[in-house]
Write a structure and sequence with these properties.
InterPro entries: AKG_HExxH. This protein is an alpha+beta fold and 426 residues long. 49% of the residues lie in helices and 12% in strands.
Length: 426
């Protein structure tokens, strides 16, 4: 998402649907605490490595690197394979610690070619400040460090929540940025690019804005937020610049403005930067949020829940599978069967118990499984597993009676069977 210098239009809205919104960090954690969400994201990328380079182990630090994630994302989208040695070479770029890793390598422009190209305004070629720029870079580093400290001081819970999803930052030379104040891209998740800052508040605001986008990117690839239908959904047109956004960008913008509006309440005594969006954030969150509420049928359950929760409209998140769903999934699951995982299936389990499953094809297929199905999948991987054995183990593992274990087990087996992850034999 790119924030450029735009003059606000004359739209006036109370943003009533977003007034009194509960804390964004607390509601994010209801879906998944930051550490859980990051671990699930790593499970997905680790699965990608397993699919394209079987037997290769990659560290968490490497999996968090934005360019590594870009390359793995391209492979998952069907655009080439994965070279583990090339990934390690890419991740060797030098960074400097300013409370957040800042790209400092003199070769950063080449190493960060993808995000720089993606966020570049037409006719522009943004270039990062690096150690080769001497005192100018050191000055920027000092301001970035002060901005990170300011963010943590003003909004410690939000800083912990959002910065967990921002492993790298790059500072753009002002004369090359083309008016980009801050930017991030779902195609190269994990890196935030900011214009050369004048003061720490500019850095803090950029980290809220783009950190909210990075949080959304991780939700979007691990939770039920949007599906392929979102590409065909109605576009939103904002009142301040008349820009038209697809559904994904609309939701991301609403989420960022909602976080910015909450941050503004915590930072009203601070001197804002000349291009700050903080005073406009609540109004814009209200406008976008009202539109999303009117189009929520295009959102998947977790996105709808977060939309309503940040508007203060729901008391709690729905959990579990409905009785109707369980009954449907259990159809055809025989209690005299033996179950095994199909040979073309690869999977990774996250610490949450959820599992991400994939198989190679013209375009790889990816499935997320709930903890029950993830546990059953793991049990069926060891050898063809009889239903009776699975039932006894499930009752013990889930610490529940046999009737409830049978209900959950048949639902889990049914979901795995529906997606051709397991097969049954006599």
């Amino acid at each position: 998402m790119v924030k450029r210098r735009l003059r606000a239009a004359g739209y006036v809205n109370t943003g009533s649907s977003m007034l009194g919104s509960p804390s964004a960090p607390a509601l994010h954690a209801r879906l998944a605490p930051a550490d859980v969400l990051v671990d699930e994201r790593r499970a997905l990328y680790r699965l990608a490595v397993e699919l394209f380079a079987p037997g290769t182990e990659i560290s968490d630090n490497l999996l968090d690197h934005p360019i590594v994630r870009y390359e793995l994302g391209r492979a998952l989208a069907g655009h080439g394979g994965v070279d583990p040695d090339a990934l390690r070479e890419v991740a060797a770029m030098g960074v400097r610690d300013a409370g957040i890793a800042v790209a400092s390598d003199p070769a950063a422009a080449e190493q960060l070619e993808a995000p720089l190209r993606i966020i570049a305004p037409p006719g522009q070629a943004p270039r990062p400040l690096t150690e080769a720029d001497g005192e100018r870079f050191e000055t920027a580093m000092k301001i970035v460090a002060e901005g990170v400290d300011l963010f943590r001081r003003l909004a410690p819970a939000m800083a912990d929540d959002l910065l967990a999803h921002v492993p790298m930052l790059a500072v753009l030379k002002t004369e090359t940025s083309g008016g980009v104040v801050s930017a991030s891209s779902r195609y190269v998740p994990g890196i935030v690019l900011i214009d050369e800052p004048v003061g720490p508040m500019e850095v803090a605001e950029a980290l809220v804005h783009e950190g909210a986008h990075e949080k959304f990117f991780d939700f979007a690839i691990t939770r039920e937020f949007l599906d392929a239908h979102a590409e065909d959904a109605e576009y939103f047109e904002n009142s301040w610049s008349k820009a038209r956004w697809p559904l994904e960008q609309t939701f991301a913008a609403w989420h960022a403005y909602t976080c910015l509006s909450q941050f503004f309440l915590l930072s009203e005594s601070e001197q804002l930067g000349p291009h700050s969006l903080l005073p406009k954030a609540r109004e814009r969150a209200g406008e976008i949020g009202d539109w999303l509420l009117a189009h929520e049928h295009d959102l998947l359950p977790d996105a709808r829940w977060l939309l309503h929760a940040l508007a203060g409209r729901v008391a709690g998140a729905a959990e579990g599978v409905s009785t109707a769903d369980v009954s449907l999934l259990a159809t055809g699951i025989r209690e005299d069967g033996n179950f095994r995982v199909l040979p073309d299936v690869a999977y990774r389990r996250a610490k949450s118990g959820r599992a991400v499953v994939g198989r190679l094809g013209e375009r790889p297929e990816i499935f997320w499984l709930d903890p029950d199905a993830g546990w059953v999948l793991n049990e069926c991987c060891r050898a063809p597993a009889p239903f009776g054995t699975l039932l006894g183990n499930a009752a013990e593992h889930w610490r529940t009676g046999v009737p409830e274990a049978r209900r959950r087990l048949t639902a889990a087996l049914g979901s795995l069977h529906v997606f051709s992850i397991i097969e049954a034999s006599d």
